[in-house]
Amino acid sequence: MDWADSSEQAAFRAQVHDFIESRLPQYYRKRRKRDTVGLEDNHEQHIVHGDAEAKAAATEWQSALAEQGWVAPHWPKEYGGGGLSTMEHFIYNQEMALAAAPQPGGQGVGLLGPTMLVHGTPEQKAKYLGPTLRGEMRWAQGFSEPGAGSDLGSLQCRAVRDGDEWVINGQKLWTSTAHKSNWIFGLFRTDPEAPKHRGISFLVMDQSTPGIQVRPIISMGWEHATNETFYEDVRIPAENVVGEQNRGWYVGMTLLDFERSNIAGAVTNRRRITRLLDHVKGAEDTQHIGDRLPHVRDKIADRWIESEVLFNFSFRIISLQNQGLVPNYEASTSKIFSSELIQRTSNTGMKLFGMYANLWDRDDALSPLDAAFTQEYVHSVVLTIFGGSNEIQRNIIATRGLGLPRG
């Protein structure tokens, strides 16, 4: 691992930093003083459901990034991306996180695009990649089902071939961003007689197709971040299968962001702990803290140390990728550590603020640090579940990292 930038990397970091400082809309600059919490406060939310100011800022920022090819910095230049190297992409993500600058594109840029680049036909690439970069196609992921979450291979949502069309019936669950998207990609069972992880195809579809219904799921933090989706005799063109028919499981397994270091998560957590420390050291009015600091001081120190550990996990992963290696159990280790650290950090802030941690309203003058720790504590419950539950990640570490036999 090399923590220092080369001269070329330092120059690129300065380029990204200067670009952000010169082009980031004022709307986002003002938000730097306030931690983002939950899953909904993002670029897609602003551009689809935001007020006039939010939509204008989101559109302006996406246009500025598009000039550099940085809406999809990891895509090849011939498809409108930035063509960045592995390390340049890492630096780009780090600077964006340090500036609290939003990254447009969502699941279309991070997930669908890389999959299409590997498995799509020339016609599919021409049809989908450009509109995705421009924000004309906004994508949701249809993977999980009521009986197929961590065990995704058990999915049952059916797609039956009928001439030149697929006819889809069934249900998907936890379809995040479906209320902000206009296209869906997902895995559907196309051969029910095949073994569990076979007979599955990767399909894409226009969300306005008759028979698709999206119903909101409201979280315990009153947040609408995900949905359940229902398919009733949904007909889509046969050409909408990506990759080989009945081999969609293997297509889906490549559906990963090219950059898996989670440097943005490490920077965000470090910033949150720093803000808590600054509040403790600079607080003249100690009503939020009272006499609780001596009982929480060691926990705050632990959280700072743990944030440094997470930061180094990110450097470890990117160092592997920079050598042409594919992180496997290393990424699982980072996912577990990151998700549980966010929960511990939020819990530590709540313990420090005592009864004031019961205040939910971020605009209440009595809410310590605009209730960010309280809200994040509630929103963070899901972090150890989605994206592959931590139990599944521990199995990956055990079998692929430690070489332990399967039970």
CATH topology label of the largest domain: Butyryl-CoA Dehydrogenase, subunit A, domain 3
- Rg on CA atoms, Å: 22 Å
Cross-sheet strand order for the largest sheet: 1-4-5-8
Helical content class: 40-55%
| Percent strand | 5-15%
Shape: globular
Return the average pLDDT rounded to an integer.
92
CATH superfamily assignment of the largest domain?
A: Butyryl-CoA Dehydrogenase, subunit A, domain 3
Number-wise, the strands total 8
CATH architecture label of the largest domain: Up-down Bundle
The first-to-last residue Cα distance is 34 Å
Which regions are unreliable across 5 or more consecutive residues at pLDDT < 50?
A: none
**How does the major sheet shape up?**
4 strands, mixed
Please indicate the count of domains: 3
> Which sequence of SSEs, written as H and E, runs from N to C?
HHHHHHHEEEEEEEEHHHHHH
Provide the CATH top-level class of the largest domain: Mainly Alpha
Output the structural class: alpha+beta
Question: What is the number of helical segments per DSSP (H or I, 4+ residues)?
Answer: 13
